[in-house]
What does this fold into?
Amino acid sequence: MKINEYISKLCFYLGLDEESLEKKIEEDENKINIYLKIPPNEAGYFIGNNGEALFALERQLRMVFRNQGNQKRIFLDINDYRGKRNAELEQEVKRIAEDVLETKESYCLEGLNAYERYLVHSLISDSEEFKDLDTSSEGEDPHRILTIMIKE
It folds into this structure.
């Protein structure tokens, strides 16, 4: 079964008809990005508290299509939840990083999922502005803590 067909069936079983759903699927050699737009009154069921339902649906897609031999990473975004969350996280991390540079005191972030931790690590390591900073993650999910600190 193709991803497009699977998403249509999944949404149907979750109570959305095809007319209520807009799908955009972008695929390259490494990943598949799936963007869904659904009615706002239904979005909470598909996104959940802090994106939990969204990430569960994404994990489901990954498992189903990995079992079919797909080795590409699959990312799901619903009503631009991830895009907005990533932009908010980026702003927050930049503010925190500037504070760490100014005060020289480390700062710990909790409650981030693996992808969000990856974004933070990348933002700090790829930014010339934050070349004097480092990041580390410790602990086990869901209680993993990411620390932003001055490089030693």
User: Anything to note?
Assistant: Residues 73 and 142 are 21 Å apart (CA to CA). The helical segments are 3-13, 40-47, 52-67, 81-103, 114-126.
